[in-house]
Amino acid sequence: MEVKIISLSLAAERGRKYSTDKIELDKSGVMGDVHANTSRPVSMIDQSHIETFRKITSSRTTEIGEFAENIRVESLGEIKVKAFDRFEGNNVVLEVTQVGKPFHSSFREIGHYVMPRVGIFMRTIEGGTLQAGDKLSYVPKIFRAKVITLSDRASKGIYEDKSGAFIAEKLKVFFEKIGWELTIDKKIIPDNRKELKAQIDDAIQNQYDLVFTTGGTGIGSRDITLSVVKHLLDHEIPGIMENIRMKYGSLKPNALLSGGIAGTIGSALIYTLPGSEKAVNEYMREILTTLQHLIYMKADMDVH
Questions:
Q1: What is the spatial distance between Cα 69 and Cα 18, in angstroms, rounded to a whole number?
Q2: Would you kindly state where each structural domain of the chain is located, as residue ranges?
Q3: What is the pLDDT of residues 115-135, one digit of tens each?
Q4: Is the separation of the CB atoms in 98 and 83 below 8 Å?
């Protein structure tokens, strides 16, 4: 799917923007624009929203840039643009950081009212030049998760992997609920340090967004998950697992014995869960309450 640029605008001061033949983009956003180096550095609006505004306001005429947009496009159609989707063209890559909410049938000041509600706000991944008439390809974000089950017996087919399948199902339902696309790879490996590290290395090299492990979080001689993962972490997020242990440990003291950890490794958030299906259910219930916000945080996206 492609969208066509109808017009481009920028302004050195806050308020409406003014028509320009081209815009130059770098990591700060639109060079020379007041919104460069802000949380919403590049803005885009579809022509259909402008037509809706004209109908509501009895065909009131508007000028290029009056909605405080940098890029005005056509042909977005029925595309449901989401955070992390991208628009690419002329070697420029823009990543969506925020999508406005639908506006109501009354308007105040145009740029201050319409743009925050229907505009698409982006940041620059790859800079370059855009001109009217250029086309941008829409590339939806598809999140990638890897679920790794550590079990000597499950890896040999002695019993069915239920905990890994349960994690995958919970992730699938959650991502459907928030409207984000997700693919899940499931792996079953023995309790082996080298194999676990190889699976995590593969996830990072291939830019996975999420890694979940299940099994190996105890203190037995074959419980190697924690010692492997801890040494790989870039950042640990201790509060998640501490809260789970305290919440369920107050009712069932044995829950305090799990050593699950959460954190980041490279591109991914990683969670190490126990091996029992019941424990996984408890952990996933708590993890999913903060997962979307953590994904935004990991990407340095301010969505407040």
A1: 9
A2: 2-139, 142-298
A3: 555 689 999 999 999 999 999
A4: yes
